[in-house]
C-alpha cells in the first residue's frame, strides 16, 4: 500500500495567516491526490482533487499543488471556519490511503 | 440535492455482525462507485473498500477481506456494508462516500460501538 505522510501533524495559526500543509507519497502517484477538511462531529469535505483542482463551492483561498510524490495545500488567508483537520488521500491504485491528518488550530 | 443518508447508530457485542445502510438520492445511483471509510475515535480515515452500484462488483481492502461484504439494492438506491466478527477495535464511525473526482459526497456517518 502507498503510504501518505503529512507534515506538520498540527500547527497554530491566527486569522489572516497563510498556512501550508505538505503531503508526501511513498511512491509516484502523478496527480492522483485529493485534500479534505474535517470539522469535529462532521464528515470530511472534499476541497481539492487531481492535486490542484478546487472542488465546486470551495473558497478560492484554498489551493493545492504538486505532482509525483510531493504535494501541498495552502490557505492564503486563514478564516475562523478553517480551523479543522486536513487530510490528503491518494487515488493512484487500490487501496486508496489517507495521510494521518494535520490539525490547524488557533 | 445530492445526498447520502446512512442508518442510525449501532451497539454490538464482540463477535456479532453489523449492517450499515447508505441511501443515495439526487443523482443516478448506478453512475458512481460508493466507497466505505471508517474513522476510529480520535483517529484518521481508513478505506474498507468499494462497490460498483451498476454491476454489484466489489473490492475490499486486504485488512477486511473475509469480514466485510458490500451489497446494493438498485430498486431503492441503497448500498449496504456488512462487517462480521466484530472486535472492540472496530468501534468507529463508518461513512459511505460517492466516488467521483475524489470522494465528493459523504454520508453523515454511522457510529458502531463494539462492547461487551
Question: What is the element layout, followed by pairings?
Answer:
The complex is a heterodimer of chains A (106) and B (116).
Chain A lengths: L3 E4 L2 E3 L6 E7 L7 E6 L6 E5 L3 E2 L7 E6 L2 E6 L9 E6 L11 E4 L1
Parallel strand pairs in A: 2-10
Antiparallel strand pairs in A: 1-3, 3-8, 4-5, 4-9, 5-6, 7-8, 9-10
Chain B lengths: L2 E4 L3 E3 L5 E8 L7 E7 L6 E6 L6 E3 L7 E6 L4 E6 L8 E9 L1 E5 L3 E5 L2
Parallel strand pairs in B: 2-11
Antiparallel strand pairs in B: 1-3, 3-8, 4-5, 4-9, 5-6, 7-8, 9-10, 9-11
Walk me through this protein's architecture.
The complex is a heterodimer of chains A (106) and B (116). By secondary structure, chain A is mostly beta strands. Chain A contains no helices and 10 strands. In chain A, the strands form 2 sheets. A 6-stranded mixed β-sheet of chain A has the order 2-10-9-4-5-6, with no helix packed on it. A 4-stranded antiparallel β-sheet of chain A has the order 1-3-8-7, with no helix packed on it. In chain A, a hairpin with a 2-residue loop joins β7 and β8. Chain A is globular and about 35 Å long. The mean pLDDT of chain A is 97. Chain B has 116 residues and is mostly beta strands. Chain B is built from no helices and 11 strands. In chain B, the strands form 2 sheets. In chain B, strands 2, 4, 5, 6, 9, 10 and 11 form a 7-stranded mixed β-sheet that branches. Chain B has a 4-stranded antiparallel β-sheet with strand order 1-3-8-7, with no helix packed on it. In chain B, β9 and β10 form a beta hairpin. Chain B is globular, with a radius of gyration of 13 Å. Classes of the chains: A mainly beta (106), B mainly beta (116). At the A-B interface, β5 of A face β5 and β10 of B.
Amino acid at each position: 500500500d502507498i503510504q501518505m505522510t503529512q507534515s506538520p501533524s498540527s500547527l497554530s495559526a491566527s486569522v489572516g495567516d497563510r498556512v501550508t500543509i505538505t503531503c508526501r507519497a511513498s511512491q509516484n502517484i502523478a496527480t492522483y491526490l485529493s485534500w479534505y477538511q474535517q470539522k469535529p462531529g462532521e464528515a470530511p469535505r472534499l476541497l481539492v482533487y487531481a492535486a490542484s483542482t478546487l472542488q465546486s463551492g470551495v473558497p478560492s483561498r484554498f489551493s493545492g499543488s504538486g505532482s509525483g510524490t510531493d504535494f501541498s495545500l495552502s490557505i492564503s488567508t486563514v478564516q475562523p471556519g478553517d480551523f479543522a483537520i486536513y487530510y490528503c488521500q491518494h487515488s493512484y491504485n487500490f487501496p486508496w490511503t489517507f495521510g494521518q491528518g494535520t490539525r490547524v488550530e488557533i | 440535492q445530492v445526498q447520502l443518508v446512512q442508518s442510525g447508530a449501532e451497539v454490538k457485542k464482540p463477535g456479532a455482525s453489523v449492517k450499515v445502510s447508505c441511501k443515495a438520492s439526487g443523482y443516478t445511483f448506478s453512475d458512481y462507485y460508493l466507497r466505505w471509510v471508517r474513522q476510529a475515535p480520535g483517529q484518521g480515515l481508513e478505506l474498507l473498500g468499494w462497490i460498483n452500484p451498476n454491476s454489484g462488483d466489489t473490492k475490499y481492502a486486504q485488512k477486511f477481506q473475509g469480514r466485510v461484504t458490500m451489497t446494493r439494492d438498485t430498486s431503492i438506491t441503497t448500498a449496504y456494508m456488512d462487517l462480521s466478527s466484530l472486535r472492540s477495535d472496530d468501534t468507529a464511525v463508518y461513512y459511505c462516500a460517492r466516488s467521483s473526482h475524489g470522494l465528493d459526497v459523504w454520508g453523515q456517518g454511522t457510529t458502531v460501538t463494539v462492547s461487551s
